[in-house]
Amino acid sequence: xxxxxxLLIFLLAPVAVLxxxxxxxxxxxxxYLIQYSPVVINTFxxxxxxxxxxxxxxxxxxxxxxxxxTPALHAYNKTAYAGLEHAIFPSYFHGKCQDxxxxxxxxxxxxxxxxxxxxxxxxxxxxxxxxxxxxxQTRSLLTNLTxxxxxxxxxxxxMVLADASKGKRRALSKVSRFAKLQARGTTxxxxxxxxxxxxxxxxxxxxxxxxxxxxxxxxxxxxxxILQYP
Length: 230
Ligand SMILES: *[C@@H]1O[C@H](CO)[C@@H](O)[C@H](O)[C@H]1NC(C)=O
Ligand SMILES: *[C@@H]1O[C@H](CO)[C@@H](O)[C@H](O)[C@H]1NC(C)=O
Known about the structure:
signal
């Protein structure tokens, strides 16, 4: 009887204690989205400031220049969760270590077991890897949303060009070769907009504190958050 009890505890305890599933997966993914929200806003605000300074005539500047990025922010809001959850679990962290028969691979589960388990302990153990997965996924999604060829890029470009030509029209309304100048202005604005949008990946890295990503680590609060799950 005692030995069967021991056997059961031995077999069941690792599953119950060590897997990150359900709420653990959902909450950790959401917590990273919350942490990244000001990073995304600050990155876009930096770019919006450049758009104002380089493209929009003072008389046409908006109070909230970040509103140029509304299309990208909406698309990000809709797709970020699914993409991030998948990038963390199971692309790298696997939830359970057990195979289909409920058997742990040799040396597992422990933080250095060859298969990276999705346990809270292993996520803390591989914390730098976890951080870089979250950063890369977030930056990749937002890079796509700010790249020419995406629907969101075209929407943002249209907003910026409309504001740019509004001011120009006012400034140049007395100029006879107005149409020609306006066409040239639009071409310049397009090119400048493209180069500002191209700076997104670097601007986001800068917002995160440079290559070390020191401002996008949240190491202590996130480790504490992760370890609240059994
Ligand atoms: C999307 O917007 C909703 C409502 O404002 C918010 O609760 C949610 O956290 C946002 N998601 C992301 C990924 O920003
Ligand atoms: C961004 O686009 C590339 C190329 O189409 C694609 O491979 C990648 O998965 C996309 N990233 C995200 C996060 O959707």
